[in-house]
TrEMBL record:
<feature type="domain" description="NodB homology">
    <location>
        <begin position="238"/>
        <end position="354"/>
    </location>
</feature>
<feature type="transmembrane region" description="Helical">
    <location>
        <begin position="87"/>
        <end position="106"/>
    </location>
</feature>
<feature type="region of interest" description="Disordered">
    <location>
        <begin position="640"/>
        <end position="672"/>
    </location>
</feature>
<feature type="compositionally biased region" description="Low complexity">
    <location>
        <begin position="12"/>
        <end position="32"/>
    </location>
</feature>
<dbReference type="GO" id="GO:0016810">
    <property type="term" value="F:hydrolase activity, acting on carbon-nitrogen (but not peptide) bonds"/>
</dbReference>
<dbReference type="InterPro" id="IPR052740">
    <property type="entry name" value="CE4"/>
</dbReference>
<feature type="region of interest" description="Disordered">
    <location>
        <begin position="1"/>
        <end position="85"/>
    </location>
</feature>
<feature type="compositionally biased region" description="Polar residues">
    <location>
        <begin position="59"/>
        <end position="83"/>
    </location>
</feature>
<keyword id="KW-0812">Transmembrane</keyword>
<dbReference type="GO" id="GO:0005975">
    <property type="term" value="P:carbohydrate metabolic process"/>
</dbReference>
<keyword id="KW-1133">Transmembrane helix</keyword>
<feature type="compositionally biased region" description="Low complexity">
    <location>
        <begin position="642"/>
        <end position="667"/>
    </location>
</feature>
<keyword id="KW-0472">Membrane</keyword>
<feature type="transmembrane region" description="Helical">
    <location>
        <begin position="715"/>
        <end position="735"/>
    </location>
</feature>
<dbReference type="InterPro" id="IPR002509">
    <property type="entry name" value="NODB_dom"/>
</dbReference>
<feature type="compositionally biased region" description="Low complexity">
    <location>
        <begin position="49"/>
        <end position="58"/>
    </location>
</feature>
<dbReference type="Pfam" id="PF01522">
    <property type="entry name" value="Polysacc_deac_1"/>
</dbReference>
Length: 736
């Protein structure tokens, strides 16, 4: 059954025949090379010593009772009684089983840390390995950490990747059918329209109209189930887009880039992907290296929360610009967290000059699969998850007047079952031959039909959860590329073609460009391996260490605080003086407070004045709400939490943007140097203390207080359990 989760050992048949298996061989070879990557010596020794010690202890426990039992003098027994095990062995066996169960429950029986937990299951996971600098720029960031601390941090990154894959991917589309809901204002009047039936008889849903005489490329494209510009399907490239959502770091970088590595399009350009980035656990320098390599970097909001507010969207773009050095005009795309797109969010990205959204789902249907379109004439489909009520007719038949001129929608095409129903939009819960069959069947609907783009929308956790999936996907891509005119591109590359569609002029040309930087010479901090030694930005990269956040950056200095949704670009630390640098734009309309590293904007919390922008300058004038009161700045405390008077200056009562357990009031943060990794800022400090010389280990292990409390309680429980077992064992042995 397609809907059932399967896990199979990879064989030659899993890739769909001998030809697929042969195509997969290079991928398997790469995976084997990656598996052989060694841990740092300290991590490897700690990992290997734990099972050995456990095995030795188990052997001692077994031999002790056996020797004691054999030395004990007992009366001669009959043949029937001789078959009964001695009572002491029975008791000890029961105790051993109890100890084993207890250790398993309390997570002590997993010295390698390779067992992960989620809300639904306990399953074996791929052990986290330290990356190498030659394959992952995040390795340089982790190189300055203590080996144990690095392993702990990698485990956190892996847990976060698994959590996002479980929460955002598997099951999102698997439980839906080809029928999609239309949401009128009155929920009781909700109707069901069969998605597939419409596309088999007409192009779009009934209320959609678009005037093709006025809607013209490059800025406008009506929704249609045929290629743009009147081109025949045989004249257009078959695009494959592969996208990855959420954080980019030492755990997610490797499996995502390796999936695309080595794929060449017919025009000789390397395959590129699209990364929809959110901020938590993101290594900003790793994002920069992806951008420098030609991959697309797009916006997935700062905090990965819904709804997608203007601040969440714009602040992530600000962090990408300041810490990943990505120009704002290069960030064209947006995807809503959990695919919860709304017309309000689309209005927001239009106001922020984004080029496209990619959050809506479309089901491929034979020759009628919808191509990407602009929203000049409204929505030809409804939102599968979010609220798009404003874009559909009202129950009384009044048409919607909503539109978003110039904004493209690059749909997410679902993978389908043999009967044409949606199976999954993201992270299909399959492996091996079942996954191959699903991919090939869905691809055929595109390639043999309207040639609408085919997409794979993934989380790194999906690849990490079953490493054979990477081989399966590579074998699938290698197989379908043999059909001709198949291009694996980023959404940005595809959008450039859509705005100016050109027919294929030869088997090796589709009018696309090869993105990416290739600057050679002395090493500079630009995300590129300038000197050709296999490592980008080695020796010039700044490494920034915070509790629960370690990242690199090519910025002028490390930020004094972890970037947050209310302070996406904190002031930077001057590498020479160790003092905070005044943000770009200075502190006009405010006063620079060096002790807090903040522009203190003029005005009052509840009155007129100014607020800090994403870069920390006081450039945002406070506005008046509908109730006649001035709107508070985003970082100000809620009204019910304010104890001071309304004349208190903004920023002096709880308005300082801090993150986690960090308090930087009155702190002079300075950088220290780590050999081979550039400047390092350790800001795990408290008010009035000097952070110079603090160890990296301190900065990480003092991060999450709640997690430490849970671990403490668990440890105490294990100690009590072991003590009780020891007492019972002593009593039993003494009685014998």
């Amino acid at each position: 059954m397609p809907g059932r989760r399967t896990r199979k050992t990879r064989s030659s048949s899993d890739a769909g025949g001998s030809s697929s298996s042969a195509a997969a061989s290079p991928a398997r070879s790469r995976a084997s090379t990656i598996e052989a990557t060694s841990l740092p010596r300290a991590v490897a020794e700690a990992r290997d010593a734990a099972p050995a010690a456990k095995s030795s202890a188990a052997g001692t426990t077994k031999s002790g009772p056996t020797a004691t039992g054999s030395a004990r003098v007992t009366p001669a027994r009959s043949s029937s009684s001789a078959m009964t095990p001695p009572p002491v062995l029975t008791i000890l066996t029961v105790l051993a089983i109890a100890v084993a169960i207890g250790l398993h429950v309390f997570d002590v029986a997993d010295p390698t840390g390779s067992i992960t937990h989620d809300a639904h299951s306990r399953r074996a996971a791929v052990p986290v390995r330290n990356p190498t600098a030659a394959t992952d720029p995040s390795a340089a960031v982790l190189a300055g950490l203590d080996a144990g601390v690095a392993a702990e941090y990698l485990a956190k990154l892996r847990a976060a990747a698994d959590e996002h894959a479980a929460g955002c991917g598997v099951g999102h589309g698997a439980s839906r059918t080809a029928a999609f809901p239309i949401e009128p204002e009155n929920a009781r009047e909700r109707r069901q329209i069969n998605y597939a039936a419409y596309y088999s008889t007409r192009e779009v849903v009934p209320w959609y109209t678009c005037d093709t005489t006025t809607c013209k490329l490059p800025s406008c494209q009506c929704a249609q189930n045929r290629p743009p510009a009147g081109l025949d399907p045989s004249q257009v490239p078959q695009f494959i887009t592969i996208t990855f959502d959420d954080a980019v770091n030492a755990v997610t970088y490797g499996p995502t880039t390796q999936l695309l590595q080595g794929i060449k399009n017919p025009d000789g350009c390397e395959a590129k992907g699209t990364y929809y980035v959110s901020a938590q656990y993101t290594d900003w320098h790793a994002v920069q290296t992806l951008y420098a390599a030609g991959h697309e970097i797009a916006d997935h909001t700062f905090s990965h929360v819904v709804p997608s507010t203007k601040a969440e969207i714009s602040n992530l773009a600000a962090s990408l610009g300041a810490l990943s050095m990505i120009p704002r005009n290069a960030i064209q795309g947006f995807r809503a967290p959990y695919l919860n797109i709304t017309t309000t969010a689309i209005d927001t990205i239009r106001a922020l000059n984004f080029g496209y959204d990619s959050s809506m789902t479309v089901t491929p249907v034979a020759d009628k699969t919808l191509w990407p379109f602009t929203l000049d004439a409204g929505l030809p489909v409804t939102c599968a998850v979010g609220d798009c009520t404003e874009a559909i007719p009202k129950p009384d038949g009044t048409p919607s007047m909503w539109s978003a001129p110039g904004v493209w929608e690059l749909p997410m095409y679902s993978l389908v079952t043999p009967d044409g129903n949606d199976y999954a939009v993201m992270d299909p819960p399959l492996s091996g031959a079942s996954l191959t069959e699903l991919l090939e069947r869905s691809f055929d609907l595109h390639y043999n039909g309207s040639r609408a783009p085919f997409g794979l929308y993934l989380h790194a956790g999906w690849l990490l959860g079953d490493p054979t999936r990477s081989d399966t996907v590579r074998a699938f891509i290698d197989k379908v590329r043999q059909r001709g005119n198949v291009y694996v591109v980023s959404n940005a590359q595809m959008l450039a073609w859509l705005r100016n569609p050109q027919p294929i002029t030869s088997s090796t040309s589709a009018g696309l460009t090869c993105p990416g930087l290739n600057a050679r010479g002395a090493e500079v901090c630009d995300g590129v391996d300038n000197d050709g030694n296999g490592v980008a930005d080695d020796g010039v990269l700044r490494t920034c260490n915070f509790p629960d956040a370690v990242f690199g950056t090519c910025a002028a200095g490390c930020p004094v605080r972890v970037p947050s949704a209310t302070e996406p670009v904190p002031p930077l630390t001057d590498p020479g003086t160790g003092k905070c640098m005044v943000p770009t734009g200075t502190c006009a309309n405010g006063v620079w407070d060096e002790s807090k590293c903040l522009c203190m904007c003029t005005g009052t919390i509840d009155g007129a004045g100014w607020c800090r922008d994403a870069l920390g300058s006081c450039s945002v004038s406070k506005t008046v709400a509908a109730d006649g009161k001035y709107v508070r700045c985003a970082y100000d405390p809620a009204p019910d939490a304010t104890t001071g008077s309304s004349t208190t200056k903004v920023g002096t009562t709880g308005s300082q943007a801090t993150t986690g357990s960090q308090a930087t009031t009155g702190t002079n943060l300075a950088g220290t140097n780590l050999a081979g990794t550039g400047e390092t800022l350790n800001s795990a400090s408290t008010g009035g203390t000097d952070s110079v010389g603090k160890s990296n280990k301190d900065s990480i292990t003092t991060g999450n207080a709640a997690a430490r409390a849970v671990e403490t309680v668990r440890g105490m429980t294990v100690v009590v359990f072991a003590a009780v077992v020891s007492v019972v064992l002593a009593v039993v042995v003494g009685a014998l």
